[in-house]
Specification:
This protein is an all-alpha fold. The chain is built from five helices and no strands. The protein has one domain. Helix 1 runs antiparallel to helix 2 and helix 2 packs antiparallel against helix 5.
Length: 121
């Protein structure tokens, strides 16, 4: 997942904390074989995490893109170096921490839903 940094391979695209969370939910709730169906909870959990990330983490920048959140063109080595020497690292650490908290809350919620569905079957 490290290559999600800088907005997926330093492209400035979607925040790695967000895409990493979505990837984790897909890995946990997605199908294991092509002929199977994804859990309906995968779509619900992923959508909820995305919307919460958008509103609770990224709303300040009105974007989920790393380049907008950080103000860095990741292809410009000087901008990237300045980011890491300044307070930029702390902004990312704070956003990643918030994303982790949100992801934990979403996982907990859907784990309970899955358990409830299993016990009612």
């Amino acid at each position: 997942m490290a290559s999600f940094g800088g907005g997926i391979a330093s492209s400035g695209g979607p925040c790695g904390a967000m895409t990493g969370g979505i990837a984790l939910l897909g890995s946990w709730l997605g199908k294991e074989h092509p002929e199977e169906k994804d859990s309906i909870f995968m779509w619900k959990a992923s959508s909820e995490f995305y919307k919460r990330f958008q509103s609770e983490v990224a709303s300040r920048w009105e974007s989920v893109n790393c380049s907008d959140i950080t103000g860095v063109n990741w292809r410009d080595r000087e901008q990237a170096k300045a980011f890491y020497k300044g307070q930029g690292r702390m902004v990312c650490a704070e956003n990643t921490g918030k994303a982790g908290r949100l992801l934990g809350e979403v996982i907990q919620k859907y784990l309970l839903k899955i358990q409830e569905e299993g016990s009612s079957s």
